[in-house]
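Q: Structure tokens for this one, please.
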Amino acid sequence: MSLITIMLNILLPPLAVFIKHGIGGTFFISLILTLIGWIPGVIHAFLVNGK
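A: Here is the predicted structure, written as tokens:
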């Protein structure tokens, strides 16, 4: 995982997921989790982009 991806995972989780996986279910899950609370969005982004 690059430094840019890590920074995006922290600052803008849905954008980081979009860049790696495009628009799809994973992006919308990340968006919803980020809207509910920032921390769940960050955790999800790290889990998804860490694979």
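A few notes: Residues 3-49 form one domain. Residues 40 and 49 are 14 Å apart (CA to CA).
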